[in-house]
Design the sequence.
């Protein structure tokens, strides 16, 4: 079985700060991590490899420093890694990103047919959840998003049955390989890699690919290949006024009484809802 | 329906400028569409919120609002068409086929691609739900056009009449406005509960255009074997609650969260929480409010022991009235709450519960 897992290196957004004067992101010192949603997909891919054998190739498009996340993924058990890196990819939106990643997956597919592609549900920086569906559409693969559980895979009939989270319930879907899957968060938890995996992760050479390796049409990547344009980036505006403070002498119960009086007199309609 | 026509060539981008001319082919794209999300006859309310928003955009552009309803033929389709018109649509496209009974990416994206290529809307909006995000990503790729995800604000840019879609990025730390200048249609998914629900106007009239795609079921690989509805519908209730009492890390330990439940009970309110509380297992994760949780817009949002981080703020700032309780007078929550109490939530919550209880008693006696 050949599984490709798309992972993205992202800044740990919990630690992002905005420069108070220039309103720009202060990336310095912000650690880069594997997009947390991608780990659920990677773990699911590794479980399928444990069961059926074969290879798990991790693929990322990003700057050279994204090598670190590929090595990390190998330390969990991924067998191969491709770093797709090229200045020409800079500024790609989701349409251009899915084009570049699909180009790489096609090349991997020529080397050994790809049965499954896994993507994260979404990234924590882009947060679009669009790249996975973009790849599935371009590869003409079945698209199975928000998968809570893979119930069954049958390699002989090439059938796959999954539970997919939808609004108000869970769909049980029967589909066929090749498919693109995004896993729901919490659907599994990432294993600890073995010592062997860690050594292998440190030593195995990565495949370093660029646009000339696999991309047919240069006009479809980077800024040029991106239909969307970011026209403005800004910090959310603070509300014009700060909260009106409710002050009362006499401790918590006096404060509570003052708060309720305030609510009732300022919002008479709300009072009806509050005291039915 | 016939094969989708080949994609029109994109307009030439003016060097660096935002003012440029669309090609004649792309100028033919007119109207603002909403894909109405219906599953088993139930419409997701985000679709009505979007019809209200589409109405505003269409009025700025001087064009029509279109609602697209996909599904199997059935009695409820007429009803949904009527609702779509009452909420702002001028024209409803009903796309009906047995293969569309349950949501599946393949048949839905196939018919939507065809319908867009036939009727050529300039803007297509979907809810940022599991259905909307799954479908939008697929059709924007077949149409090779721009798609902006999870928007919280939409407008028409006066200089080029294109859609200006604003969305949080980097986990809500920043907002960015994204435009699709040289391609049509312009697509966006929008967060549920962010746009205001429009007034329903039963006197509005509109046209219904029936589209019969004649799909052959056997060409679709994925089959729906079963649908298991959530037994716990509470999840849905938080987003639509009129009153919410939310607790944060400032409550210090799991047991103290009971104070939030107590106040919620006297108020008939739902319970919400910040992420550290759901992560610590003090409350179930479906009660998390914020960027990675629910967006809520109640009439009253009481936040106790919540600092007001931007990721929490984006989930609740559209509430009509926000009352914050925090021991730190400089907590960021006071920057966007309407009213604040500086004090210990562990004392103020029970005091509020007690006082509300008393006032209810008084009120009952009086009535
Ligand atoms: C990608 C990403 C997504 C996120 N998504 C979400 C999300 O969806 N929702 C969300 O909520 N968070 C989210 N977060 C986390 C968010 O950044 C904050 O860490 C979180 O909201 C803080 O929760 P808190 O206010 O309860 O806790 P804290 O930040 O620890 O604040 C506790 C507050 O309680 C006050 N306090 C302490 N003791 C008392 C007392 N006795 N009485 C009254 N007040 C007291 C303190 O002054 C403080 O202001 C996300 C973070 C990231 C990185
Ligand atoms: N640059 C990238 N390299 C590899 N995979 C990516 C990249 N960008 C997005 N993905 C994959 O697509 C998923 C969804 O990303 P997004 O559409 O940005 O939310 C991610 O979780 C990854 O699995």
Sequence:
């Amino acid at each position: 079985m050949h599984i490709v897992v798309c992972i993205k290196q992202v800044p740990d957004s919990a630690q992002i700060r905005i420069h108070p004067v220039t309103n720009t992101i202060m990336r310095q010192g912000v650690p880069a991590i594997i997009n947390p949603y991608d780990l659920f997909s990677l773990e699911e891919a590794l479980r399928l490899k444990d069961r059926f054998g074969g290879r798990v190739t991790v693929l990322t498009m990003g700057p050279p420093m994204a090598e670190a996340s590929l090595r990390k993924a190998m330390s969990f058990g991924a067998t191969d890694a491709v770093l797709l890196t090229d200045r020409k990819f800079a500024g790609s939106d989701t349409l251009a990103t899915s084009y570049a990643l699909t180009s790489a997956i096609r090349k991997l597919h020529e080397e050994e047919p790809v049965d499954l592609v896994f993507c994260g549900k979404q990234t924590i920086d882009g947060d679009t959840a669009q790249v996975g569906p973009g790849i599935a559409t371009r590869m003409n693969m079945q698209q199975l998003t928000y998968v809570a559980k893979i119930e069954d895979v049958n390699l002989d009939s090439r059938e796959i049955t999954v539970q997919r989270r939808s609004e108000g319930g869970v769909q049980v879907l029967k589909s066929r390989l090749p498919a693109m899957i995004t896993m729901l968060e919490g659907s599994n938890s990432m294993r600890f890699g073995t010592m062997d995996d860690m050594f292998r992760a440190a030593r195995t050479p990565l495949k370093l690919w660029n646009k000339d390796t696999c991309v047919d049409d240069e006009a479809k990547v980077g800024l040029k290949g991106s239909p969307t344009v970011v026209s403005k980036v800004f910090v959310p505006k603070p509300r014009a006024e700060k909260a009106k403070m409710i002050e009362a002498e006499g401790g918590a119960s006096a404060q509570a009484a003052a708060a309720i009086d305030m609510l009732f007199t300022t919002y008479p309609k709300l009072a009806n809802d509050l005291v039915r | 329906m016939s094969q989708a026509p080949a994609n029109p060539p994109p307009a030439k981008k003016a060097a660096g400028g935002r003012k440029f001319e669309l090609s004649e082919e792309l100028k033919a794209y007119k109207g603002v569409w909403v894909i109405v999300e219906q599953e088993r006859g139930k419409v997701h309310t985000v679709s009505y919120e979007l019809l209200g928003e589409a109405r505003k955009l269409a009025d700025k552009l001087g064009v029509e609002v279109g609602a697209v309803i996909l599904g199997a033929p059935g009695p409820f389709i007429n009803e949904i068409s009527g609702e779509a018109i009452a909420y702002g649509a001028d024209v409803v496209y009903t796309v009906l086929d047995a293969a569309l009974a349950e949501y599946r990416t393949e048949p839905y994206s196939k018919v939507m691609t065809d319908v867009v290529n036939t009727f050529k809307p300039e803007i297509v909006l979907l809810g940022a739900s599991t259905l909307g995000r799954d479908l939008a990503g697929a059709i924007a790729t077949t149409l090779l056009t721009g798609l902006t995800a999870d928007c919280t604000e939409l407008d028409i840019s006066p200089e080029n009449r294109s859609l200006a879609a604003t969305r949080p990025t980097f986990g809500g730390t920043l907002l960015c406005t994204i435009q699709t200048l040289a391609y049509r249609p312009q697509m966006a998914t929008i967060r549920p509960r962010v746009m205001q629900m429009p007034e329903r106007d039963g006197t509005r009239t509109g046209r219904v255009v029936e589209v019969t795609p004649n799909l052959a079921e056997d060409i679709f690989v994925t089959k729906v074997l079963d649908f298991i509805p959530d037994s716990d519908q509470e999840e849905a209730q938080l987003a639509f609650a009129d009153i919410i009492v939310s607790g944060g890390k400032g409550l210090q330990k799991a047991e103290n969260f009971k104070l939030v439940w107590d106040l919620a009970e006297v108020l008939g309110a739902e319970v919400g929480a910040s992420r550290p509380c759901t992560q610590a297992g003090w409350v179930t994760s479906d009660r998390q409010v914020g960027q990675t949780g629910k967006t809520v817009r109640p009439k009253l949002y009481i936040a106790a022991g919540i600092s007001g981080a931007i990721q929490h703020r984006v989930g609740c700032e559209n509430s009509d009235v926000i009352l914050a309780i925090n021991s730190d007078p400089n907590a960021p929550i006071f920057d966007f709450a309407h009213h604040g109490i500086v004090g210990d939530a562990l004392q103020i919550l029970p005091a509020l519960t007690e006082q509300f209880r008393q006032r209810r008693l008084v009120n009952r006696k009086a009535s």
